[in-house]
Amino acid sequence: MASLAGKVAMITGASRGIGRAIALKLAGNGASIVVNYGGNGAKAQEVVAEIEKLGVEAIAIQADISKVPDIERLFEQTLERFGKVDILVNNAGIAFYKPITQVSEEDFDAIFAINVKGTYFTCQQAAQHMAEGGRIINFSSSTTVMMLPTYSAYVGTKGAVEQITRVLAKELGAKAIAVNVISPGPTDTELFREGKTQEQIDRLAQMAAFGKLGDVQEIADVVAFLASDEARWITGQNIRVNGGIA
After folding, report:
1. Was domain 8-239 assigned CATH 2.30.30.90?
2. Of 161, 219, 224, 177, whose CA–CA distance to 1 is shortest?
């Protein structure tokens, strides 16, 4: 895989889980890293410290990506520090699983604000500031094709992200900015385990062809490929990194 030396990568929601694994993977390939976080500054600084041990630069920037002024500040501070953004990974997201009869307006607005609005307006900033040849990697979910009861609001947000990605791939193609989306299957993170019984977790794991949950490193490896020069002819695609679950 080609080195990412000289590149600047911004990862939203990078203080833990998949985002943390992506930040460390891209740093290991030589990229300078912007670790965006919402509330856990201590965890974000731990990621920065781990990255710096790899010999590359990193900075943690707090921003609530459900708020456009925060997104604008995130890019402003990144440009002040590094002067550019080459790679944007829209990893931040939230999830809940409720029957439609139990989803409140507040629930709906909160999940769409982070998962869709956040992705949309970080892409807007990238479109304005990213140089030719950049990479935008959004996150959906393999649950969009699994018809799982109680997932309607979550899957609604991820379906929106998939369609935004497809349109932006054409819209930003003139600048040679590749825009793709990754759809993980069940992946062993705190967010995935939240609110699930062990029986539910085991059942989802057994649905994969490999009979196990995904690992965060398996997701990060695919992100690193899409961020590399080897993926220069891939855009507008939905890569299902899910162990054959769907």
Report:
1. no
2. 224
